[in-house]
Amino acid sequence: MLGASRASSTREYQLLSTTNITSTGTQTYSIPAGVLYVEVEMYGGGGGGGDRGTVGGGKGASSYAGGGGGGGAYLKIKVQSVNLKQNNQLKFTVGAGGAAGDGNGEAAGAGGDGGDTQLIQIQNSSGVSQEGFTNVIAGGGDGGDGGHNSNPIHGGAGGTSTNGDTNTSGSAGSNISNFSTAGGDGGDAGGSDGGAGGDGGVNTFGNQSGDAGTAPGGGGGGTAKGGGNPGAGGNGKVIVKVYG
Q: Which of 17, 31, 87, 169 is in the most buried spot, having the most CB atoms within 10 Å?
């Protein structure tokens, strides 16, 4: 049962432990003894920054900077269930940050989308589901546009979250004009402790690449018009706080 209200009592619940899960893909957390409820915080992966693009060839070629990737969403939920028994497991998917765009000098180098972070189920030690969760998801941010001659060059949309007690969207990556020499900045992840978006590359020697988004969930910065590389998005994260 999600978000169940606490029975009337003078007892103060105690925080027993806090666990950070930063590895991406399918992950599990084993329930310790003495649990009354858990609080789960989740961040989606940030979108990758867009690469610069070149339109046309020869003397008529034009280069364009890339847009910033969107930040991943944040979600917090209280889980209070008869299935929170010792050695049962919470099962998650932790979203990876989106790959940096790679246009190879052509106008096609959009950044990759960040992966969703999802609370899937409570399962026993053998992996058999005891209780499932429906669409409890902190969404990943979208990748930024590769450079092109349309106006504007869009930053990726921020991720959105669903079915948490608290749901906070990530910030969008920066849109830029097709006249911009600098790449778009990545969007910040949702939540007060979410990762910052990476700065877009500026069109000066040695500083043209976009910065990677900070984990958890920051969007990558886009490449400047003159060259360099875009930044990848920051990976997502799960925090499990156990109360007893």
A: 169
